[in-house]
Here is the input.
Amino acid sequence: MATNEIGQKLVELCQQGKNLEAIDTLYSKDAESVEAMSTPEMPARMQGVDEIKKKNQWWFANNEVHEGSAKGPFPNGDRFAVIYNFDVTPKNGPMAGKRMRMEEVGMYTVRGDKIVREEFFYTMG
Here is the structure.
């Protein structure tokens, strides 16, 4: 599968709320995930598809998602970007109970027909 096709499938699955299916089918078992910052609950860097799935599960368990969208992909060689928008209410922490909108960019690197790296860019606060 070409990089753009992998990106299209990722966006399609995310729009359907099938994030874990996307990880299971599109990611390399040794994929790396890099967040813009770390939190006490979650380190910025994670290695391996199992850790990436745990991070994804944690995010959905700790946020009430009112709406979410994925736009893209925007390909460039062996990488592609996706723009995510969320309307969420955090369940824990200093923002607990405060509905907010957030936008982030995911940058994905593909090798051997699998996503091997995801990086997220966003600001908090």
Q: What stands out?
A: The two ends are 38 Å apart (CA to CA). The longest strand covers residues 63-76.
